[in-house]
Amino acid sequence: xxxxxGAASFVARIWLERHQNADSVWRGHIQHVQSGEERHxxxxxxxxxxxxxxxxxxxxxxxxxxPDDVELPR
Length: 74
Hints:
Layout (H helix, E strand, L loop, with lengths): L9 E8 L7 E8 L5 E4 L2 H11 L20
Antiparallel strand pairs: 1-2, 2-3
């Protein structure tokens, strides 16, 4: 890990912005708890790039399944 040993913690918030006469757009904000660094994003790949930059982990395989292929717990 680049910011010390152990696990990295992130807080992410994702919301849907509804626009009149336009498509709705997903937006988000993520904060790295240990450093306080934060970013806004409009693509999940931007969220992933932020986490990758602050850790030694990658998001490889994160996009392997389409949402329709994922079974959600009940």
